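quick one, 441 residues, struct below
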Amino acid sequence: MNLKPSNNLVKNSLNAHTWLGLTVGAVMYLICLSGAVVVFFEEFERWEQPNVEEYSQYSHQQITAAINEFTQRVDKIPESIYVVLPTEAVPRIHISADGKEWFVSQDGKLSEPVKEGWTHMLKELHVQLHLPQTFGIIVVGSLGAMLCGLIISGLLAHPRIFKDAFTFRIGGSKRLEQADIHNRLSVWGTPFYFMIGLTGAFIGLVGVLIAVVAPAHFNGDRNAVVDSVYGGDPIIERKAESINYQKAFDELTKINPDAMPIYLVAQHLNTEKQFLEIAATLPNRLIYSEMYRFHSDGSFINYQGLSDGPVGRQVAYSVYRLHFGHFDNGWVKILYAILGLALTVISATGINIWLARRKFESFINHVWSGFIWGTPLSLAMSYIIGIYGSHFVAVFWFCLAVCMGLSFWIRNISKTKFFLQASTSVALLICLLTYYLNFGS
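---
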């Protein structure tokens, strides 16, 4: 049995790979670079607001006081109030609902508001490319699906890709050099890239899937689709009373001593439907958390079945951690960042190969050079300027446009590359200086 792909299949796969890569290459570069950096979003969020009180221990009195003050500050009590508990990665508490969010001090008082700073801009760049939310998420999810297509077509288009896994031709032909970098990095990280593409596609396109499935099988009820996958809320009809948070935590410890609470949700506060949810991570599990439900008096109702329910439910609730590398182990984050940068290089070299194959230069070459080396500079500049005016998104895109325009004006790729790389180095040093001037040591 001959498993070698036919010449016709190889040719068609190469054409498909080329055009698909050209279509998504620039956008993929932005998504991959921002994704490699956003792995450290928890560290960046702490870095941006370093004066927030940090601690690891908390009490039910603290939670009660924070929720009471929160309900007094808002005009209407939200349906769901979230209290994110301290973890090793982020040893601080914050409370949020309906777009309002504050940090919580150890005495239960609300302190400074949680700011949507540079890290928020970085998240939005990765998740939705700063486009309108729903549309942007769908676009990025579609690119995740295209990445899977690129991986498959790339493997089929290069039958010797694994055999040549350690072949490097550096310093000779520009096209061969870029092709070797592109192909070698592609081979070494294929399983990771495919996982990232698949999980990214799910995160981005799950809303589309729900919109399609709801009218076909659930009489248009989208919430019913979500409940069928993740499990629905319990039906509660009891007299409203103060929530006994301590009793609920004690009950959780009895039910599952290994469960580590990461956040809680006060649902339908001060109504007959009131109940408490506690999300907790479980050791050696990929699921983001299990959801445990409790009556107001702290007695156990049930759990959502995210850890031992249908296989599809477990898989669906594991996607987030897999895609973002959201693990407590810092080395896993570093590995995700390295592989994310490798995928960034793959995205760039894919376009470089096509440009080198043309054997002539045009405005595309110069604009592309400005785009590639201007993106890191624009990320740094968005922090430096944005920290004084909060216009992080506008600064990023303005700086990127200036970098591409400057590259087109200089019309010398080597000079452009050196200038933008040097400027990025200086900008990163200014980032540290700016930070010191604002927050001290």
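The beta strands are 80-84, 93-97, 100-104, 110-113, 260-267, 275-281, 290-294, 300-303.
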